[in-house]
Design goal:
This protein is mostly helical. It has one domain. It is built from 4 helices and no strands. Helix 1 runs antiparallel to helix 2, helix 1 crosses helix 3 and helix 3 packs antiparallel against helix 4. It is a multi-pass membrane protein. Pfam families: Multi_Drug_Res. It comes from Paenibacillus agilis. Its main location: membrane.
């Protein structure tokens, strides 16, 4: 369950991080700040069952890769070197996730 919270928080990070560039009205900024708050509340709840360093690494990784992909989709420049390093980042994140157990699980 805690990993689901991290994934949802990471997905919200993609939305709010992308929204930072495009928010222009007061209501849009309120929406961005609300998404920031919700994503961190979910992440804090996940910290109760997952080690902080691992949960935060996965959260930031989801946000990094997702925000990069949204940026490319919206026309921002990209390079194959950047994509290579994102693959390396994803490899590390998946490795950390697979090598971590939640509190109460056997190692």
């Amino acid at each position: 369950m805690a990993w689901i919270l991290v994934i949802i928080a990471g997905a919200l990070e993609i939305i709010w991080a992308s929204g930072l560039k495009y928010a222009s009205s007061t209501m849009e900024w309120i929406g961005v700040f609300a998404l920031i708050a919700i994503s961190f509340i979910l992440l804090i709840q996940a910290y109760k069952r997952i080690p902080v360093a691992i949960a935060y690494t996965v959260f930031v990784g989801i946000g990094t890769v997702g925000t990069y992909a949204i940026g490319v989709y919206l026309g921002e420049p990209y390079s194959f070197a950047q994509i290579l390093f994102l693959i390396i980042l994803l490899t590390g994140i998946v490795g950390m996730k697979l090598s971590t157990t939640e509190k109460g699980e056997a190692s």
